[in-house]
Amino acid sequence: MYILGLNAYHADSSAAIYKDDVLIAATEEERFRRIKHWAGFPSQAIAFCLKEAGITVDQLDYITIGRDPKAKFARKVLFLAKDPFGGIKTVRERLENRGKITSLEKEFENHFSVDAASIRPKIKNIEHHRSHMASAFFPSPFDEAAVLSIDGSGDFTTTMIGVGRGTKLEVLDSIDFPVSCGLFYTAFTQFLGFPHYGDEYKVMGLAPYGQPTMVDKVKKMLRFTDNGLLDWDERYFSSAREGVITYSKDHVPEVGNLFSPYFVEIFGKARSKDEALTQQHKDLAASVQRVTEELLIHILSHLQKRTGLKNICVAGGVAQNSVANGKFIGNTGFEKLYVPPAGHDAGLSMGSALYHYHQTLDKPRVAPTYSACTGSKFSNDEIELILKKRNVQYSRLEDNILFERVVEKLLAPGVVGWFSGRAEFGPRALGARSIIADPRNAKAKDLLNLKIKRRESFRPFAPSILKEYVGEYFEKVEDVPFMEKVFPIRKEKRDIIPAVTHVDGTGRLQTVMKDISPRYYALIDKFREKTGVPILLNTSFNENEPIVNTPDEALDCFLRTQMDMLVLENCVIER
Questions:
Q1: How far apart are CA 314 and CA 302, in angstroms?
Q2: pTM
């Protein structure tokens, strides 16, 4: 049985394909279009998935999509009816988007030359947050767990809680749009001068530079309800009837202004994107992050008491807040946490497919997922053809010699672009499409931000650490395969690895497992042999663009930045 899962006409468009319970491929459309968060029909991601599976569209048994236009439809109508004139623009855009979702078969006909009538019976609409919950629970190692899906909004829901047992998910409660933890955080993201869709991680990175001096003021916007959920004071927010997220003709998501004049009255003038960051901005970021953590702990603590379970799975855009994730265990009553590699909306493709396979068809569970490497892959022979065509000088080395050469370059010190195996699915580079450096080099962070990534100086870099050494360097020991949690670094180790130690003494770690990432593990282990430190600085292989997907894109990024070495599988290019 083949199931193709989709996230379409929504930010972070993607596709994933399963053969029975085996994930064959999953990828985001942005990797092919080279436009961040691309939100149209993922035709190139679909073509990639079909090619990897070795089948055509006609051979698919089901096509699932993580959107259901019928979900909470009566509540949507009632919400818009409260202000019908204010909602005309929103109604028009929502109807247009709904029309796209309900005519998927026409897209397949146009892009893949198949009869639309033969496709329609295969299409299954799965509610947005049920898809998120499925993406977190079904690939987890837990037979039983509480589940939280929390983001900006989807299918008129912003938060959904439930329980997963075996092959079934049960929804316990939900919060209707517009009350939203995600939109609350985004409002402050905009206010702090970060206007683009997906900029919330910048607030998370800025927060450690401030003090949470405005927690009480920020918290007045929200109400932590007795049932373990939340409400808010709508005076702080712009009318949601005017549309929150819209999409340009180029399928780029755009977020409308979320904060109201009353918000400005309370917090002062908003920062423009080019204005210098003040200590007040940093303190506000710290306060917003702290309140968000308190809210999530409030929700999860009540969920744990309500279910009595010890395992928790979390998905949705807010699940990308790795700082908050690192505080759940020990503060909520839960003992084990699983966050999928694509907790954001790209994961809806996987989640919708899994929901249909398990929940609807009652098929056995898939094996737990600990690898995010489900995307593009290129052989050494393919890479050599590309390099010869572009007249690039290179060396092709066996792994044992290659690892030695890379470590020598890192110790020089140098910065290396590392392109190895299948590309990652999700927002994190995990050793397949990474830029790496020596974590002991105190100047590496500034060098990378200024000369390679060309981004804000306050944004941190992550430590990729061999699993066996986590307890030696971090105060908490958990498996963190997808870089989804931030933990305090032991005080005595912070001066040893300054390039991956954030200003507050924490690090967003990635535990590297030998059986999951053997080649990346071997490289880090070679660095350990030379230095005694089982860690590499790891950041995504890109420069203000989607993570590189092909050898050509990796080479282009190398040439326009100041990287010292590029490794494409076993092919090495040096300055």
A1: 15
A2: 0.95
